[in-house]
Fold this sequence. Notes:
Blueprint: H1 2-18, H2 21-30, H3 47-57, H4 59-66, H5 80-88, H6 93-109, H7 112-115, H8 118-140, H9 148-173, H10 176-184, H11 188-196, H12 199-214, H13 223-226, E1 235-239, H14 241-245, H15 257-265, H16 268-275, E2 277-281, H17 284-297, H18 315-320, H19 327-330, H20 336-353, H21 363-382, H22 393-406, H23 415-426, H24 440-454, H25 464-483, H26 487-506, H27 509-515, H28 522-540
Antiparallel strand pairs: 1-2
Helix pairs in contact: 1-8, 2-4, 3-6, 3-10, 5-28, 6-28, 8-9, 10-11, 15-16, 17-26, 20-21, 20-24, 20-25, 21-26, 24-25, 25-26, 26-28
Amino acid sequence: MFAVGFVKYGERTWALKCGTLESIGASVKTQPPAIHKHSHRQDEASDEEFLVRRAHSLFHVCKRAIVDSSVIEKDSVEGQEQYTTKMMRKVELWALMEIELSLMYDVLYTKAAVVHTAAGYLVRVVSPLTIAASLVLFQLTPKDSHIGADVAITYVLLGGALFMETTSLVNALGSSWTFAFLSTTRWRWLRYVALCNGRWDSLRRRVVSLHHLVKGGFPGGSSTNRYKSRRWSYIIGQYNMLHLCTRPADTLLTSPLLGRLARTLGPNGWWDRKHYSGTVKISVSVKKHISLHMGRLYKHGTLNSLGMLRKKWGEEPLDRRGLYEGILKDSLGVEFQEGIIIWHIATDIFLAKSERAKAEDAAPRVEAIVMLSDYMMFLMVDRPYMLPGQPQNRLYQRTCENLVSMRLTDDPEHPNRRRRGMIKNLFRVRDGPASGTSRASERRDLANRLYDEYASRRFSHDAPRLTYVARLAKRLLQKERADGTADSLDLVLEVWTDILVYAGNKCSRESHAKKLNSGGELTTILWLMAEHLYQVSLEEA
């Protein structure tokens, strides 16, 4: 028992060492990409299981990317390039990225890198045998001098340990990581016995069914539920500056009770970030739009030799339309986060004044624009470590102060609505942009007032960014009136999509890795997707 405990704690220490980016980088340099030829066999596996196997087969791309070594060297495995391209075809790319990131989470934050090795499997086979031997020896030992309660407790502890170690062995053997190990093992006889004869597939199905049964389902339940834990939730954060700046004044009847407590115990900014942010689920249409944009973006010639985007954030859709000059070029800002602030407020103004945005057929595009705009602002305010470039906290705070000073202090059209909302606001925990609060008209009023105040100005020393904001909104409205089509909506949507992809591409690898521990981020999905598309672009060049 002492030997088993010693080895187990040694495993934990070794897993901590193996779960660092330095260790992953060292393994990438010394180990060639693993080719799992058995992942092509879909006749004996469900669609979801087949996708998991392909994720393991392409996992070397994720590992190379996370340590900033995504370019495959010339001395890599022969035929690996063509193999990667084949594996990428006819695969639901979003689901594949989610599963690969879940595998990376296993490497970084669990003992997968240690368990699923020859030594790890040996430990799991020996451990239950050792504990069973201890149990038999204790059974054969005379117990006349021992207290009955102590004997019973010892039996319970040994039996529990035997059950836990047996469960650990079965889970390890039935894990998808075992498929990856068996596919690349040097012992051909083991690969033949386990994979070619279908014995491992049978064990895998039994283990998955048992897990599903323990969690309250039924044996043979849907594969969607079985692998739900490996998939991203498609939930993203939302934060809107105009929504924040039209919040009720801090009075006794309008300020939430928790907000007063938060301001008493800590800084006011923390409460504003948490209380006035929300969440929304990405729609299928938005996913499809992002995929099409990335497919067009990641063609040969749009990336440098390191797989990084050559152009500035938002430049590609503007340049493609011949608009990357003058006001639109300046609106992208000198720093990345400055560009987010300018485009975020200008987008709200444009949607408030655009006639085309009010059309029924434009609703999906408007929804996507608002979703991406509020998401990028959420990252800038609540998770700036997920964005490239220098933080713009002072610019953000100054812009908020200017917007608050411009908001209408009274609401003569809706006095009853304000009185009804007072009691509700006292106990409101979240007041996000899409929380259902009735401040949409106030946000439109603030957007219109901002446009009227700054659109005709050439420059304002008090609020220079608001001048850029109003001029950008004016340029977009002029383009809409000149074209008479929905091209302005498409332009705004593509600019935000380009900003989103740029954020994922330029974010530090350490930030992507750390965010996996708390559920992952949309930009992390897009970063890994870009790495795969870049790999394919190299192979097809």
